[in-house]
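Protocol step 4 of 6: structure prediction from sequence.
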Amino acid sequence: MSARGDRGSATVELALALPAAVAVLAAALSAVQAAAAGVAVPAAALAGARAGAVAGDEAAVEAAHRSAGGEATVEVSRADGWVTVTVAVDLGWPWGARTARAALPSEAS
């Protein structure tokens, strides 16, 4: 076995494999973030609807932002005794936006 012919081959293999491993890791972390948003956005809409039904529109927006994060877009509407909260979060490419809507009967007088 010639040690001279194998010299530096491990370095070359690492240099070729490392970028691919980093790309796979980045894609996996991005997918986890998208999955977490898929759970957090509907929960934020429901939390906002609960707060809006009891305490008003400002409480609805605050509760939804607290649940979904500061980057979320929150809309509150009232019609026929119902409070509807829509929460949207844009995750960027390739995942796009996640949107959820929740409606509850209003308890506020």
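Step 5 (inspection) to follow. The two ends are 87 Å apart (CA to CA).
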